[in-house]
UniProtKB/TrEMBL annotation:
<feature type="binding site">
    <location>
        <position position="234"/>
    </location>
    <ligand>
        <name>NADP(+)</name>
    </ligand>
</feature>
<keyword id="KW-0560">Oxidoreductase</keyword>
<feature type="binding site">
    <location>
        <begin position="166"/>
        <end position="168"/>
    </location>
    <ligand>
        <name>NADP(+)</name>
    </ligand>
</feature>
<keyword id="KW-0521">NADP</keyword>
<feature type="domain" description="Tetrahydrofolate dehydrogenase/cyclohydrolase NAD(P)-binding">
    <location>
        <begin position="140"/>
        <end position="282"/>
    </location>
</feature>
<keyword id="KW-0554">One-carbon metabolism</keyword>
<dbReference type="InterPro" id="IPR046346">
    <property type="entry name" value="Aminoacid_DH-like_N_sf"/>
</dbReference>
<keyword id="KW-0028">Amino-acid biosynthesis</keyword>
<comment type="pathway">
    <text>One-carbon metabolism; tetrahydrofolate interconversion.</text>
</comment>
<keyword id="KW-0658">Purine biosynthesis</keyword>
<keyword id="KW-0378">Hydrolase</keyword>
<dbReference type="InterPro" id="IPR036291">
    <property type="entry name" value="NAD(P)-bd_dom_sf"/>
</dbReference>
<dbReference type="Pfam" id="PF00763">
    <property type="entry name" value="THF_DHG_CYH"/>
</dbReference>
<keyword id="KW-0486">Methionine biosynthesis</keyword>
<keyword id="KW-0368">Histidine biosynthesis</keyword>
<feature type="domain" description="Tetrahydrofolate dehydrogenase/cyclohydrolase catalytic">
    <location>
        <begin position="6"/>
        <end position="121"/>
    </location>
</feature>
<dbReference type="InterPro" id="IPR020631">
    <property type="entry name" value="THF_DH/CycHdrlase_NAD-bd_dom"/>
</dbReference>
Length: 286
């Protein structure tokens, strides 16, 4: 058996086509396109590549890119000045601060200074409250992308046993909150790589979401035959980017969202969706 592809690349392209139509309409009614800002501090090549990708996505659907770059030794004040500037800029509908920030900066203070209405990542503390409450607010992009990918491939969620590995703020922790909403009704076990008997939790799961940043962690040996497997892990090595899911997993899984081509493109599509939705909310309120 070889797993069917949860094709994030194709699904994201389809989502972008729908968003492009909404952007065209907004641009006409509002008189200017929605704008997505990125704040990049330092010169980490990986971060540069990700941010470039986000700007390419913007260009494809007619969203205006707003780039802000700061040197690796930027002060807290300099970064916060950029945040204040984007908060005040009416052309900037939403923006992200590319993480991680250099260690000398206080990332939480930077994120808290953002206007929550412009939080394209859905990671502002003010937007994490509604995530827990299940009321409307921008959703974290990777969890939203994972749910969208599963839905569009008719992978059943209601009653499914989901094992998440990784309890990070961008993926693991919030995906547990999304999947246990009434609209999804999954049963979620949230593990870390050090969870005792991790293999036992994994073997019980109908759906495995790997977000640990631990290359090759999920092998066929720890999977229930027929499980759906989504790789949200990404580690930069000398051999290139490596996911959390071992290639042999494809021989026992029914569904596989691979890295690359699975969760990553969906994350980027959801960033665009968050910006377009923010622009639509703004257009409705004037
Ligand atoms: N404020 C903030 N928001 C983020 O969303 C954020 C961040 N900081 N910091 C870094 C991580 C990482 N991340 C990725 C998104 C897409 C791909 C992606 O599209 N990957 C391609 C492959 C990329 C390649 O080949 O270079 C794929 O999986 O097919 C990867 C990584 C977003 N992040």
């Amino acid at each position: 058996m070889t797993a069917q592809l949860l094709d994030g690349k194709a699904t994201a392209a389809e989502i972008r086509r729908g968003l492009a139509e909404r952007v065209a309409e907004l641009t006409t009614t509002v008189g200017r396109p929605p704008g997505l800002g990125t704040v990049l501090v330092g010169d980490d090549p990986g971060s540069h590549a990700y941010v470039d990708g986000k700007h390419r996505d913007c260009a494809q659907i007619g969203v205006a890119p707003i780039r802000r770059r700061l040197p690796v030794d930027a002060t807290q004040q300099q970064v916060e000045d950029v945040i204040d500037e984007l908060n005040a800029d009416p052309a900037c509908t939403g923006y992200i601060v590319q993480l991680p920030l250099p260690r000398h900066l206080d990332a939480n203070a930077v994120l808290e200074r953002m206007d929550p209405a412009k939080d394209a990542d859905g990671l502002h503390p003010v937007n994490l409250g509604p995530l827990v409450l299940g009321v409307e607010a921008p959703l974290p992009c990777t969890p939203r992308g994972i749910v969208e990918l599963l839905r569009r491939h008719d992978v059943p969620l209601a009653g499914a046993r989901v094992c998440v590995v990784g309890r990070g703020i961008t993926v693991g922790r919030p995906i547990g909150l999304l999947l246990t909403r009434r609209s999804e009704n999954a049963t979620v076990t949230l593990c870390r790589t050090g969870t005792e008997d991790l293999a036992r939790h994994l073997r019980e799961a109908d759906i495995v979401i790997a977000a640990a940043g631990s290359p090759g962690l999920i092998t066929k040996a720890v999977l229930r035959p027929g499980a759906a497997v989504l790789d949200a892990g990404i580690t930069r090595t000398d051999q290139g980017l490596v996911g959390d899911v071992h290639p042999d997993a494809a021989t026992v899984a029914t569904w596989l969202a691979p890295m690359p081509g699975g969760v990553g493109p969906m994350t980027r599509a959801m960033l665009l969706a968050n910006v377009v939705e923010a622009a639509e909310r703004n257009a409705d309120s004037v």
